[in-house]
Amino acid sequence: MLQKKICMVGAFATGKTSLVAKFVYSIFSETYQTTVGVKIDKKVVKIQDKELNFILWDLYGEDEFQKVRLSYLRGSSGYLIVVDGTRHNTLEKAFSLQTRVEETIGQIPFILVLNKSDLLDEWEIETAEIDAIIQRGWTVIKTSAKTGLGVEEVFQTLANKILEA
Asked: Does the keyword GTP-binding apply (predicted)?
């Protein structure tokens, strides 16, 4: 079985921990849980007749006061940049994080995850912006950790990208 380290990065409170909990344990909690440092979970993903053991590194959210320790990223096979669709500033943070991740560990597969799609009426990110990101060649998937929409798809898509890399 292939082991693959996957990092979850993004601004604080974008839903990184909730996405991991939904994917690994099929649960969602309304209670906000701040990640301190890094939280590590595992899940086996079956793809292309292979089993990948995903080691999921849920890194604490970045804000103005706390920068993600880039050393946590070393050894990653892929990463998810999680954005809260209801907070436009988390998209700007995602762009700077992606640049810093690439400068640190090089080009590896990643997906931009637009989370909180269950709150579409509160979204601050426009369809035209999403289309422009896709034009850059980025893979963008809308998810909801609450309803489960797109959660499996994100990890399956990343698994495929890793196997193709």
From this structure: yes
